[in-house]
Amino acid sequence: MKLVKLITADLKIRAEKMRLNKYLSESGVASRRKADELIGQRRVTVNNNIITILGLQVDPEKDDIRVDGEKIKPEKKIYYLLNKPKGYVTTTSDEKGRKTVLDLVRTNTKIFPCGRLDYNTTGVLILTNDGEFANFIMHPSNKIRREYLTKLSAPLLREHKIRFEKGIVLDGRRSYFSDITFPVQNNYRWVKVTTVEGRNHFVKRMFKALGYSVQELKRVSYGTFNADNMKTGQSRIIDKKEITEFMKAYSN
Q1: Which of 36, 59, 64, 118 is catalytic?
Q2: Nearest to 79 by CA among 126, 131, 23
Q3: Distance of CA 181 to the CA centre of its chain
Q4: Are the C-beta atoms of residues 55 and 19 closer than 8 Å to each other?
Q5: Binning pLDDT at 50, 70 and 90, where does residue 103 land?
Q6: Helix axes 131-138, 240-250, angle to 10 degrees
Q7: Which CATH class is domain 79-140+226-250?
Q8: Inter-CA distances, 171 with 72, 110, 175, 183, 210, Å
């Protein structure tokens, strides 16, 4: 009986604790990956001790956890869909003083973008304070479907379309567009492509590999999310039902 009590007590203790990066992620500070970076930069303290151990277990009920001296408290999870316009950087701050996507979302909650869209790339962008969700939506193993509308420097040749669908070598591995269509009749400079890739500048680099430059780029959809009925620069809250549907579509 004594042994059973000891085991039960140990399980209770372990159940109350979690990895520090997970707690920071669930508190809306950043994704787990970014949280690890903050720890590596010695910006995180637990009970007034600077932490450098990435796998540290903490007890959110008892431990005083801070980032840059600010105490971290769990927040209600919130999700925004933004139809990003040109001229905004996809980050929470910019050393050059440029406008960021946070300037377009009215909220008192500290949020961050899930992934990036280039300065002059437009379209669907998700912002949240849910680090776990951000980690899920950006992880390459989950193969989130992304659809882009592009305007090319020259009409896309039929043989190049076939090569993109079969795959070309990029970053040392075979890469491809899973679908290619032409939304404007008899205009082969406007091309809509679908991919599950999240690599930096993937669409632009794919076209560049065969001699094209991308003059316009818009992310039309990201998983189950799209901005079909939203004006450029407009944002809206994503409700729980939409998040549930997204997770159901992409969870293994």
Answers
A1: 118
A2: 126
A3: 26
A4: yes
A5: very high
A6: 40
A7: alpha beta
A8: 39, 35, 9, 29, 14
Q: pLDDT tens digits, residue range 32-69?
A: 888 999 999 999 999 999 999 888 999 988 899 999 99
Rounded to whole angstroms, the Cα distance separating 36 from 193 reads: 34
Residue labelled with tokens 């949020």: 111
pTM of the full structure: 0.75
Topology (CATH) of 145-222: Alpha-Beta Plaits (3.30.70)
What are the extents of the domains in the chain? 2-71, 79-140+226-250, 145-222
103 is catalytic: no
Looking at residues 156-168, what average pLDDT do you find?
97
To the question of domain 2-71 being in CATH 3.40.50.720, the answer is: no
User: Which band of pLDDT confidence, cut at 50, 70 and 90, is reported for residue 205?
Assistant: very high
**Cβ proximity of 252 and 144 under 8 Å:** no
